Amino acid sequence: MGSRKCGGYLSGLLILLALWSIIVNILLYFPNGQASYASSHKLTNYVWFFEGICFSVVNMLIVAAVLLVLENENNPKCCQSENCSKKYMTLLSIIFSALGLAFSGYCLVISALGLVQGPYCRTLNGWEYAFEGTAGRFLTDSSTWIQCLEPAHVVEWNLILFSILITLSGLQVIVCLIRVVIQLSKMLCVTYSVIIQPGVI
């Protein structure tokens, strides 16, 4: 009972994190609330992974919803034995938790790469990746950010939003790992009880 309640809380947390990730992804697509840069393809290439990240986040939302359903005590039994039914549901939970781990890991990697690369912006030399060769060192040197003339404050915009995405994705990875560990322990316990039961009888 306690593990189901805990699993339900974790699934609800995944849904909340996925919804926030979708909002942040959308904001990345419109620096300073302007759509002109997106329509003219003047965004960093990792922001153009938006479709991939958003697809991944939407899938994460679906995975979290499925996990929430699997934690429901009123689920119909999939086989005659109660132990068999529990084992099957636990296996499904492990599979979907692993999928969630893959989706959140993808978002984490892309967000980290986008943060380190820096924005695509207009400098005195034209549109370019002004910080591409700095290996992310520009992040701690705000005096260099003035190189980006347009979009205004794009470095801060990308820094804040990519950092939020990294945090959200990192939390999703942790939650999914916890779920996998919990479900594996449940499966092992069910398997152990099935093995020792004939001996007890």
Automatic annotation (TrEMBL):
Keyword Membrane: yes
Compartments where found: Membrane
Keyword Iron-sulfur applies: no
One GO CC term, this protein: membrane
InterPro entries reported for this sequence: L6_membrane
Topology with respect to the bilayer: Multi-pass membrane protein
Stretches that traverse the bilayer: 7-28, 48-70, 91-116, 159-182
Domain of life: Eukaryota
Keyword terms of this UniProt record: Membrane, Transmembrane, Transmembrane helix
One Pfam family linked to the record: L6_membrane
Protein name: Transmembrane 4 L six family member 18
Similarity-based family: Belongs to the L6 tetraspanin family.
